[in-house]
Amino acid sequence: MRTRSAYAFAVLLLVAAMLMAFSVGRFPIPAEDVLRAAWARLTGTPSGLDPAVETVLFSVRGPRVLAALLVGSALAAAGAAYQGLFRNPLVSPDILGVSSGAALGAVLGIYLSLDVLAIQAMAFAGGLAAVAAVYLLASRVGGHDPVLVLVLAGVALGALLGAGVSLLKYLADPYNQLPAITFWLLGSLAAVDCGDMQVLLPLVVAALLPLWALRWRINLLSLGDDEARALGVETGRLRLAIVVCATLATASVVSVAGIVGWVGLLIPHVARLLAGPDFRRLLPVSILLGASFMLGVDTLARTLVRTELPLGVLTAALGTPVFVWLLAATRRHWQ
């Protein structure tokens, strides 16, 4: 019963968030017109609406809504996977340096005055390269607890990559390059288009499908490596698969949206309260809630004030009080 309620709540929240995202903006569109246009597009029949309305819905807001869905889903799923992998609820998708690596790649691309596609490619490659370096470093160092070694290697390399970002910001042109770097690091979906979605959608799907297929095995990692091996799970390969998929999801969306914090840390906590700790239920609820949260944040970013607000600022402003409330609620539950 609890699972059905969690799924129903998450789906209804997502539908409401999508309807709001398509309706509000500088060109408001009534909700019934949004539904009529969507039904006409699905059935291939004329909607009877002004062509300008359909242009706003499907050409202007459509790519941005899809981008918000993908970003929120990918970050929430990656956060849930990392928290299950490291058996730590305070872990977020950037724990292994993926966000720092993507940031360094994008900042380097901006510093070299490359085009948008090249900057996105460098951000994506930087995120993947950072996690690969962390995994290689952890395997060389070794240790009794491979999870702890992996986390410490990620923290150390993330600090080094952050220093590289700071150095490039110091060297950048303060009139052109530095504002672009700062804007990218704060996160935004203002520049996404259909071309970005054609690249982003396959990457996110390719990252989430293996996590979906392995979701019951990820439950066994919470028992510890020895118990998981006794149940027939090869923990080393499973851990590597989770890291690769979660990293691919995070790097792909960060390369398009910039650094967007709190989603991968906060949303799995909310999903855990609704659906419980079982990863088979936690993953789909996290995906739905992450998509809804990102849609709501992006809608606020483009409608709250005249100039668009950075996503990273809004996610921190909204995420901090909710996370504090979750800590208080969890403490009452423990008591």
Shape: globular
Q: Structural class given helices, strands, pairing?
A: mainly alpha
Please mark out the parts with pLDDT under 50 across 5 or more consecutive residues, or reply none.
none
> Using DSSP, what is the number of strands?
0
Cα(first) to Cα(last) distance is 25 Å
Helix percentage = over 70%
Kindly provide the radius of gyration, computed on alpha-carbon positions and rounded to a whole number of angstroms. Answer: 20 Å
Helix segment tally: 14
Strand content: under 5%
Largest sheet: none
Average residue pLDDT? 87
Question: Secondary-structure element order, as H and E?
Answer: HHHHHHHHHHHHHH
General description of the model:
By secondary structure, this protein is mainly alpha-helical. The protein has helices spanning 2-23, 31-43, 51-86, 98-111, 116-141, 146-171, 177-186, 194-213, 215-221, 225-230, 235-257, 263-275, 279-303, 311-334. Helix 1 (2-23) runs parallel beside helix 13 (279-303). The mean pLDDT is 87.
What's a quick, concise take on this entry?
With about 325 residues, this protein is mostly helical. About 80% of the residues lie in helices and about 0% in strands.
Tell me the layout of helices and strands.
Layout: H1 2-23, H2 31-43, H3 51-86, H4 98-111, H5 116-141, H6 146-171, H7 177-186, H8 194-213, H9 215-221, H10 225-230, H11 235-257, H12 263-275, H13 279-303, H14 311-334
Helix pairs in contact: 1-3, 1-13, 3-8, 3-11, 3-12, 3-13, 4-5, 4-6, 4-7, 4-11, 5-6, 5-11, 8-11, 12-13, 12-14
